[in-house]
Amino acid sequence: MKRSISPIFWLMFGAGGMLAALFGPALVIITGLAVPTGLGFSPTSMDYAHAIGFARHPLGKLVLLVVISLFAWHGAERIYLTLKDMHLGPKHLLAWLSYGSAGAVTFMTATALLAIGL
Amino acid sequence: MRRPYLRPIDRHWWAKPPYLAYTLREATGIAIAAYALVLMAGVICLALGRSAYDAWLGFIASPLSLALHVIFLVAMVFHVWTWFAIMPKTMPRLIVGGRYVEPQLITRAGIAVAALASLGLLLVARWVLP
Fold first, then answer.
1. A6-116 topology per CATH
2. Cα–Cα distance between A91 and A89 in angstroms, integer?
3. Domain B14-128 has CATH 1.20.1300.10
4. pLDDT by residue (tens digit) across B60-89?
């Protein structure tokens, strides 16, 4: 029997969905609203010195890679299935575009984190 | 020649009830992926150096970005709700003390845990961040 690769995508979708459900609202509030406006948080808490310190720490790298890539894979799965149901193109093309984008996001984030170094 | 009957389907079925609810739920995936892109841009700018990262910080504080993040936040909260509303259907039936646990109870418990997790992260960040 030909094995399907889709359980792997489902696993990433589920992990990203759970991560987003548990911490997504807080993450968006912190990085996108509270820190930039200084509401309840100091605007300097994400400045270059603090950010580079966070990204140089192995745990910081792990957090960034896990959050960014799992969110991307979660979104890719939903976007792929919706585009497929809307019949917007051949199935394989849509799959390559959506999963490919999530793969590219994972690769580029990992590369950037490696380039930042320890 | 085989000519199967294909029931005609409205091209815009996904924009009409009852399918609209599902479309909106799936659309939260776009917001979550877009948020990942914003963060990825930040990490790449960080790797490129101080001036690139400061430019990203400038974008993050712009009205466009703030409006985007308000949309992301609404989508995230909607995602929390739909995620746990579906959960009783995607997990094996839970039996406690010989009785099936009510689906609504699983949904409510999930939303409560999510609210606590997000609140906890906010408090920890408030405490840890300078």
1. 3 helical TM bundles of succinate and fumarate reductases (1.20.1300)
2. 6
3. yes
4. 999 999 999 999 999 999 999 999 999 888
Instruction: Give me the interface pTM, i.e. the ipTM.
Output: 0.94
pTM exceeds 0.90: yes
Chain B residue with CA closest to A30: the answer is B122
**Is A79 in CB contact (< 8 Å) with chain B?**
yes
A105 neighbourhood in chain B, CB within 8 Å: 36-37, 40
Higher pLDDT, A3 or B47: B47
Residue ranges of domains in chain B: 14-128
For chain A positions 37-66, those within 8 Å of chain B (CB to CB) are 37, 40-48, 50-52, 55, 64
Identify the residue with better confidence: A52 or A88. Answer: A52
Checking A98-104 for CB contacts under 8 A at 24+ apart, the result is A99/A9, A99/A73, A101/A72, A101/A76, A101/B33, A102/A12, A102/A69, A102/A72, A102/A73, A102/A75, A102/A76, A102/B33
